[in-house]
Design brief:
Blueprint: E1 2-6, H1 16-28, E2 35-40, E3 54-58, H2 66-83, E4 88-91, E5 105-110, H3 114-117, H4 124-140, E6 143-146, H5 149-158, E7 166-168, E8 189-194, H6 203-211, H7 215-220, E9 221-226, H8 236-242, E10 249-253, H9 257-265, E11 269-272, H10 281-288, E12 293-296, H11 301-305, E13 310-312, H12 317-328, H13 331-345, H14 350-371
Parallel strand pairs: 1-2, 1-4, 2-3, 4-5, 5-6, 6-7, 8-9, 8-11, 9-10, 11-12, 12-13
Helix pairs in contact: 1-14, 6-12, 10-13
Length: 373
């Protein structure tokens, strides 16, 4: 096959969808029987693509106008894919070019339906575009990959006919951990939050819940917040001041994979009380590092952690607080969660995900060929 890929997420600092795209592509392109064309509005800064079976088709649009990114994908990209005569086009991120010829088999990965189930947590323009373009992609795609059973349920509820062409393929842990690292503290032990700093991640309630922890727990366990700033203009510094927890909280910002892995391994607890997740990769990263997890009891999060985490109501500050106290004050529970988390994380594999994704591509091609007779 000649496979075209919307690789725009690899042109920006790595985040959830970029990490998903990178991990799958690095494995799938190793099969030299297929040609790959990686399309992007800007040069790729993630991954090494110096292989004979890979062609980079990258522009260099200005960074300052994000709307150009979307316009390029909807107008220029389908023209390029047509000229390149790709057999199959894969979008790892929710949307397909509206004018992609029907002769090109299309596969789209749906990570979540935030635009429908948590619209207030999105940028207004992004919410409107997703509300328009994602259902179109679900309807028009020859095949759909959902990253969890929860996401599959959501998209099938939205477009019932999608059930016949939807496959569930889980993500997997992707960080490399030092097997000989000694558990140590960064200015004491710490609780950890990992995620883009935007409304869906529910940081204001997490900060409030942390502020209600007993003083002796806050003195022992600081709160480290890792992640690049998203939208929403939430002034976390002012919230930290308001809750009088400035001396306990550190905003570490975006970290390299190497630093992020160390930060996971040295953490006492991951707290992720998101309001909505299609998958929740930090949950797996933490469990794979043998770090206990407290997370939300809604959307995909219970599915991903299984019995290896404490589940809390993300809308209830007291529930978040009690979940943290429960883990931090019970050493036997922490040990049990660490072991169960590691065991649970082993159920997820990028190698398995890559193999299943290639099977989806083959099935999508075969289905279209069958429909042509």
């Amino acid at each position: 096959m000649r496979i075209g890929v919307d690789a725009r997420s690899l042109s920006e600092p790595i985040s959830g969808i970029g990490r998903y795209t990178l991990n799958l592509l690095e494995l799938m392109v190793q099969d030299d029987s297929h040609e790959w064309i990686l399309y992007s509005h800007r040069p790729l800064i993630n991954g090494s693509w110096n292989r004979k079976n890979i062609k980079l088709s990258n522009w260099n649009l200005p960074k300052s106008f994000r709307v150009l990114r979307m316009l390029w994908a909807q107008s220029i990209l389908p023209i390029m894919a047509t000229i390149d005569k790709v057999d199959l086009f894969w979008s790892p991120a929710h949307r397909l070019p509206r004018f992609l010829p029907k002769s090109i088999v299309s596969v789209v990965t749906i990570h979540d339906l935030v635009w429908k189930f948590a619209p207030e947590t999105m940028r207004p323009l992004s919410q409107k575009l997703d509300a328009k373009l994602m259902p179109e992609a679900i309807k028009n795609a020859d095949w759909i990959i959902a990253v969890s059973k929860w996401t599959a349920k959501d998209l099938i509820d939205e477009v019932p006919n999608a059930k016949r062409k939807t496959s569930i393929i889980y993500e997997a842990p992707s960080l490399t951990y030092d097997s000989i690292i000694v558990k140590k503290s960064l200015n004491k032990n710490y609780l950890l939050f990992v995620g883009t700093l935007e409304p869906r991640k529910n940081l204001p309630r997490l900060l409030e819940a942390y502020s209600f922890l007993p003083s002796h727990i806050k003195e022992k366990y600081s709160l480290n917040i890792v992640g690049g700033r998203g939208w929403g203009k939430v002034n976390f510094e002012s919230l930290i001041e308001h809750f009088k927890i400035k001396k306990y909280v550190k905003i570490l910002g975006y970290l390299s994979d190497k630093d992020l892995a160390k930060t996971y391994q040295n953490a006492s607890l991951l707290v992720m009380p998101s309001l909505y997740e299609g998958f929740g990769l930090p949950l797996l990263e933490a469990m794979n590092a043998e770090v206990p997890v407290v997370t939300s009891n809604i959307s995909s999060m219970p599915e991903i952690v299984g019995k290896a985490a404490i589940l809390v109501d993300p809308y209830d500050v007291n529930s978040i607080k009690e979940g943290m106290i429960k883990v931090l004050t019970d050493l036997n529970l922490r040990s049990s969660l660490s072991k169960e988390g590691l065991k649970q994380s082993k159920n997820f594999s990028w190698k398995k995900a890559a193999e299943k994704t290639m099977l989806v591509f083959t099935e999508a091609i075969s289905s279209q060929q069958g429909n042509n007779f």
